[in-house]
Amino acid sequence: MIKFNINIIPLVLVVCITASCSEGFLDREATNAIPEEEVFEDPALMQLFVNNLYLDVPAFDHHLYDNITDESRSYWGGAPQNVVEGQWFADNNPMEYWAYAAIRKTNMFLNKIDGAPVDENRKNVLKGQVKFLRAMHYFNMIKRYGGVPIITEPQELSDDLFVKRQTVDESFEFVVKELEEAAELLPESYGDQSIDVGKANKYSAKAFLGRVYLFWASPLYNPGEDNSRWEKAAAINHEIVESGIYSLHDNFRNIMLDKNNEEEVFGVQFMKPFREHGWDSWAMPDSRSKQDAVRRSPLQEFVDAFEMENGKAINEPGSGYDPANPYVNRDPRFDATLIVNGSTFGFQGLPVYLHVDSPIDGINTPYATITGYLIRKGTDESNKDYYGGTGSDQNWIELRFAEVLLNYVEAKNEELAAPDQSVYSAVERIRERAGLNPYQLPQGLSKEEMRERIRHERYIELAFEQKRYWDLRRWKVAVEKLDGKYFHAMHITENEDGSYTYELKPVIQGPYVFQEKMYLMPIPQREIEKNPNLEQNPEW
Amino acid sequence: MTVSGTVVDINGEAIPGVTVSVPGTTIGTATDLDGKYALEVPEGSTLVFSFIGFESQQITVGDQSVIDITLSEDMASLDEVVVVGYGTQKKINLTGSVASVDGEEITKAPVTNLSNGLVGRLPGLIAVSGNGKPGAGSSISIRGASTFGDNGALIVVDGIVRGLEQIDPNEIESISILKDASATAVYGSRAANGVILVTTKRGSSGKPTFNYNGFAGVQQPTRYPRVMNGYEYAATKNQAVQNMGKPLLYTDEMLDDLRNGRIPETDWYGLTLKDQSFQTQQNLSVNGGSEAIKYYLSLGYLDQDGMYDRINFQRYSIRSNVDAKINDNLTISGDFDASTQNNNGSAYSAEAIFDDIVAAYPMDLAYNPDGTIFYTREQHPIEEIKTGYNRLKTNILQATLSLKQNIPFVEGLSLFGRASFGKEYSNNKHYNVPIFMNRQDSEGNTLEIYPYGGWNGKTALNQRFDEYNTTTLNASLNYEKTFGSHELNGLLLFEQFDAQANNFYAFRTNFPAEGLDEFFYGGESQKDANGGSFNDGRRSAVVRFNYGYKQRYLFEASFRRDGSVAFPETKKYGLFPAVSAGWRIGEEAFIKNNTSLHFIDDLKLRASYGVVGNDRNVYNGRIPTFQFLQVFNPSGTIVSGSEGLSSITPGILPNPDVTWETAAISDVGLEGLLWNGKLQFEVDVFYKRTSNILLERIRSIPATLGAQLPAENYAKVDNKGIEFSLTHKNHINELNYFFKINGSFSKSKVITLDEPANIPDYLLQTGRPLGFITGYKALGFFQTEEEVDTYYPQFNGGQQPGDVKYADINGDQRVDANDLTIISIDNSTPKIIGGLSFGGSFKRFDLAVLFQGATKVNRLLDGMARNFFVGGSRNTYVDLLDYWTPENTNSLYPRPWEGYHPNNSMTSDLYLRDASYIRLKSVDLGYTFSDRVVERLQIENLRVYFSGSNLFVIDKLNMFDPEM
Question: What is the pTM of this model?
Fold first, then answer.
């Protein structure tokens, strides 16, 4: 009897394994992920997907783009030094931006959204935002490489993946069309929809289109000097200026600190503890640093570009510039942008000494400025919580109203034979807010003189906002302004009586190498290797 | 009465040192040099003659007073039984390629991790020692690389797939390495990289035998890279900054002071790393039983310190293997093992600490004169070791109940069933605390208190809980019967595996004080919680059939059908068959009856072919990746105004056809036993074609696709090789000795792989071995500016004398990315490896020595072994002192620079090094106490031993350990 009972156990086991528990055992779903079908059935999940697309928008840059122009240099060497010295290649380009992973996500979304069960209004909003983001990625590639492959559908492995580059004009046309469509779909504002603070709206799409047109009209991308592009650029930027949606924030120093103010057109939102960056940390002199510091040492050339408060250039007769006391009575943006020897900075309210042999922060001591200057722009001096790459939560303002004004005046000035009053008043709007006194430009400037005024204004107003490098390229002046040049540092020596002696010396790193071929960056080498239809830019 | 006589071997030669004893008494003696003995014994006693290497003989003493004995040599290897998949087989009947090693051999020398004990002992097993961290094992592969990605073997412990690190080596009865398809096909879809079968000890009937094995020892690091001292650092740094156009950092006076020791330096190595660290392993087991119940119970403890304070590994393990014979036909076994493993470490990883020890600036102090922490800004390895902690506690339980039922009415038929639960729980608590450096001026006034490290300068606690629960069920029918000259053996088996896992993670920061390391103390502002789950399942059927005729002609066929959750509906099941045959030539009359061939005891030729699978590349560790589904995964957080919003992002591009990799393996082997077992040899030649290899076509698919690529079944790799082992055992008088040599050589060749459309032939992988190294070909250094100017344009120009000059490979008269070429076919996995062990016993002493070596292995120097002052300020290996200057033009390294140099840091053959080595892996010297001593202590056997591992290495690398 006992024996019989025991015998039955393995038989039951065998039966179970072979038959009764077979159905479904091997048909399982991943419990750590969401199937795609569910995403496009559920508006909440679709929104989460769109949220993710905003993570792909470039924001604060650690130390590359400002340190490869005539704005500043990096103490730390590395990528910016390599770019300055011309040591960047098809297989090693620190500025590479091959954004097809981000673009695929936008394509996946746009491919599925039309059939998704969402109300029409919301669908248009989401579509508009995604089209805007996709256009932004393409634009960021075009400004580097010229024409790029335009892909608008999520490709499958079985598709022909050997895509070709469009021409520069075709690529711009695509971005223009997309931004126009985005502007159509997007609302003028989001009212009280809290999840959409800072997301693209009708006007940010148009303002971005204004920037795109400006680039397209610029010499690098407009070798045929097609003047209608300047006209279009002027018109669309003018529309934003006239709409009255945006205005200049009254305090230049606080543009980045007073969050979501009237000047922000489009940006990347930050808020501790959800999303942080290191802007304050990176700006610190070593004496106040926590694990990172001194990422930008402004160049003497940049410092000298600031006018006096009276609106005259420092070398202009009657400017009142005193080489023995060079940092006083300057354009008020000077103090909002720079830390000079003896400037008060930070929550401690103490001065920072950058002169030769100053302990810790003196020029060319380890982890100190290499030019005699540091930057103040955008920093939150009350912040005590900065550390390494974290602790700051200013928004990254990708596009602000001052740029819209500058885009407008540049385009309008180029469009016309000589600047009209609208050009003067827009430039003067910026100079007035800056606090120049008088802020007016001299009347009767020629087109060329006005062009230099506008470029100067961009240099000062948009400094350290990752704009200068691209301006120098699109104007095709990088070779002239950068190549072969040694830029300068200010070595300040403290005299026994407490006064200072100022001595100009070339900054270490240099001379700058900017070859003609570098106006268009090389297509990444690995992509050239993989795709026989992809043409490399000349000379790379 | 007195008994005397002579003991000789079968050739009539006297054997000295043979133990002659009467069991159950203290009566005993040993033969003298002429093999003679004389002994006083009670009448009717039984005499036992025993000697290592010979079969023991028992003689009952009648009335004869002279007993001469001929001992025949131990031919136990003919009866040797080896563990194979789902069963055991006599070694002589094996038709597959199986190597095995006894637990006793592995644990003779102290081994804390089983994988380390296998290194150099088995032909075809490639084991590379790990990083030497406490508790760390070796990475093990069988027969070299034959697929991309994971080449690790499947580890099966008592029928359950587990990790080797979970097992106390003292619990091991034997280990079998299954190498060819006929041996592994019963493991089907997971067998392509070979299988390691571990069998634990079981009880045997008889009085309880307690066994204690313990050791305590110290370990020393094999080799550390040496870094520059203060003077070397300063002089080289000056060169570097000068080359970069920066002002010099050290005046001649400072250099002079440094050289003469007038400026204090800190010995960061000496202040952090211990000269030696302690380890101990203790194991107490008891085994015994009656006819009905047999048991093996074991308790083990391992405690291993690392090379600096606060890094330590502990393992407590228990095992209970009990077999209950319920009746003549039914045996039920319960196997339970449980262990707790503690991995204790500093908050900083061992890698980070070691990196920082090497990086630390020699002229920094460790502490200020007032005892506060010196401000080093970048790293402080002494404090990093002391601050915070990272502790991982893993609890493992495996409980298996199995039963064997002989079917009484069919002779030879039995039923076997097994149910096993595996439970793993791990709790990881990682507490980060900042180091507060006190920055002081030269007068000792505090300038600032600088928080270094922690989590953004704050305290932070990460805690993670993981559970992994498995159920393995199997049931099988076995049939074994001999009909005259015909031997039959059959197996039919079903198996099911199910796994469920969960994890939970939480994070909190801003703890008020260092000691308050529980979540509820944490601050409110920055916290996070996360978690998830996954599951896995497999279901399989196995059939195996063996047939032997006259013990001469052997045949085996087997197959396994596997189903897995990891594959789509149409590809869920795979079939993995194998056939093999053996011919025991030694049993044939033409050898047996040929007197000149009498030295052959056994000789067997065997051959096999089979197809096995590999599914590792659709798993991420233990997690099936469901590559046939498009899924969305949680991603980062964006901000809108003051709110944080979560997001999801698409996972990898789905591959609806994803299925198993398959390996077709042919193997021919010859094995034999010669001269009365004095020489044993085994040679195997194999050819393995792995196809349907799962690989992302990352080399050929343009990134404009934008998707994370799925693994696709398309690549094909051939792997051919040979391996051999040779064992010689003999004795000369009282000296017994053995030599064992094993070696393996394998060579892979890529048959199909995605190739970029636009690369030159000389960079194609197809037709070449796996894993070759590409880079630039260095032509030495530019010696003069003129040489730079007259050479082809190299990259974007700007080279100086002392920079590396590269070859123009494609002949376009410029050097750029199109000049990359193959600089080495060999990589860091050796293609030829071997082991040599020898030893023996003399009187009461025994010795075992193991050497291991590898060649056809190249290492590419990187990071600090390639660049000066990585990151700008880190210290540099002394090897880089041989750098280019106008006076030292024939140097190893180019002119110094800070960190990565855009021209000189490129991968080139300048940085390629031969990493061949021969290493004395272990030496083990033991002494067995005499019975008289031992009996007084009431124990059966007492052996003490002295042992050492990794005692020296001969190599060309010098900079660091060749296995690191």
Answer: 0.87
